[in-house]
Amino acid sequence: MTSWQPAEIAWDQAAGREAAPGISGSLRTGSELSAARFRLEPGATVPRHAHPNEEFGQVLSGSLELDVGGHVSVLRAGAGFLIPRDITHAARAGQEGCVLLECYAPPRDPFPPAGGQS
Description:
- By secondary structure, this protein is an all-beta fold.
- The mean pLDDT is 91.
- It has no helices and eight strands.
């Protein structure tokens, strides 16, 4: 039997990275799942994209307009979403901005490589 230690994530102390203009966050990756916390400035947009990972998201504060496969929803703090793999999606932060937790399976790094775009 292997020993397991809790893996606490102190998001406020994690080094931040830029995902897109007006969107910063940090990432933690396990063997089967990755988790990222993002801070979106008011009106910041997540460009339309798709990836081969399932994606779960939870709005922690503020609001987010989410377009998943052409279906648009406005999510507020406490609301979550689940996006199947390979489905095109995009988002825009509300007037007050948004703090968002996302998880991906299998793991995914949502940040562009240093010095380039993903």
